[in-house]
């Protein structure tokens, strides 16, 4: 049974609250783990946890600040003074500011008996940016933190209670980000009956099942060769960065900030697939999958030859077969998704995000988050004979 409009608004508001709480709980778990490492004299582990937190936070603030500076404001949705925004992002509070702003707008819309089109569109506009930032935070901080704590457990042969808390919060954060990102892409897409709850669940499952084995083998390599994992990451990251550059991404407002996006996408590609360009998606996804699979197999071979170094060898004997089963199941679900569940109808304009050149003047005065719409256009296919939509060079925000 379809949801009523007010129920949908309430659902989105509750999801926004839960997403913000999940982020804060995950942050608290990481800080708790770092404090426990310090108290137990494991200063290197604490420094690594804090370094990952710091680098990811700086990247998120940069993305948020650049987007806010480039977006066009409106009398109905004014932006705070630049000094206040700069101070918030300097204090690493830009993302939380966006979460609070999104919740306030969602609550405003929900309280209205007949929400205005602008308020609904502006709420979607804010939530789409939050979803994108949450996805970046997941692969810049949560996934590396999960890899780090697994490497520590594999190297030490035991797990403390706060490490299990960190693992659980990381999995919740990753799961939530994947689901929220898919929901955000769906918001940018016009009504397509082929995309439903089942498609979203399958999309989430194949992403998580393919991500888990990758995280495990990288954690395994980190536990075996802690001095070389940085070189391994840097080598693959440079390859992915070059690959993303070859695809000619045009996501950020300027050429310099575009490199920040490319560097972030290269980090995502180290763990999982992320589409950044139109055309030949299946071929690029296959190349990326084969590349990561070969790299992961090499890391498993390294464990097979050097497993005596780890005190958790028996644990690995059960984890690695389980990871192999997860990979095969995730691959099967991915094939099933793209064969039968992935929307394949043509793009049509909608109220918030769509074909801006064909929208009426009233619709063009609504907030339009073209960043996420651009990614949704890459994610959901369209017919080959469809004309290219006017995108490049247009300004994100309220026209």
TrEMBL record:
Cite the InterPro entries for this sequence: XK-rel, XK-related_scramblase
What is the native source organism of this protein?
A: Ovis ammon polii
Cell compartment(s), UniProt: Cell membrane; Membrane
What is the protein's membrane topology class?
Answer: Multi-pass membrane protein
**Which coarse location class describes where this protein primarily resides?**
membrane
Any keyword Nuclease? no
Q: Which GO terms describe its biological process?
A: apoptotic process involved in development; engulfment of apoptotic cell; phosphatidylserine exposure on apoptotic cell surface
**Which Gene Ontology cellular component terms are annotated?**
plasma membrane
- Record keywords: Apoptosis, Cell membrane, Membrane, Transmembrane, Transmembrane helix
**Transmembrane parts of this sequence:** 43-68, 161-179, 199-221, 228-247, 259-277, 289-309, 315-337
Similarity section: Belongs to the XK family.
Q: Which reaction does it catalyse?
A: a 1,2-diacyl-sn-glycero-3-phospho-L-serine(in) = a 1,2-diacyl-sn-glycero-3-phospho-L-serine(out)
Its protein name is: XK-related protein
